[in-house]
Amino acid sequence: MAHAPHPPHRTSRAGVLLVVIGLGFAVLVAVGLIWSREIAFWIKGHTAGSAWFLTYEGAAVGGGPRATDVRYGHNPDRYKSQYAQESTGPVQLPWSTEVFVNVGKEARVEVVPAADGVVSCRILLDGVRVVAEGKSPGPGTPAVCRVDTPSTPEKWPR
Questions:
Q1: Among residues 34, 30, 52, 54, which one has the least CA distance to residue 42?
Q2: Which of 15, 110, 121, 155 has most Cβ atoms within 10 angstroms of its Cβ?
Q3: pLDDT tens string 5-40
Q4: Any idea what DSSP says for residue 50?
């Protein structure tokens, strides 16, 4: 006597269905997390600007407390990628200014000493952390400080 074939088990179909639903949910969660991170970067870039807040400094190390010129680069508007070069002309040292420099751009300051003076420069992140510093290699020669800013606005590497 032949046996009739067994009807498909509901538990195996239910198990497969639960696995498919679980995988689909996991994919949706992963895509949502990636998408939300991208949206957060976009929002931050359009509300807070994608620029680093830096302080440029110049000081006399030897000789008179004057510089014949200080040249530096910055972004006049933290919300736009426009980059400007400034030149102060003669200034009294110590000298400093606060600027924005967009992510992924060069931050640079050059202090030109008067006569045979020796000068130094620094670039500070948020007015506190020194991210670049330099000194005239000899009397009458400029001190140059430069650093490439990180390409993401989240964290400056150590």
A1: 34
A2: 121
A3: 655 555 677 778 888 888 888 888 777 777 776 665
A4: S
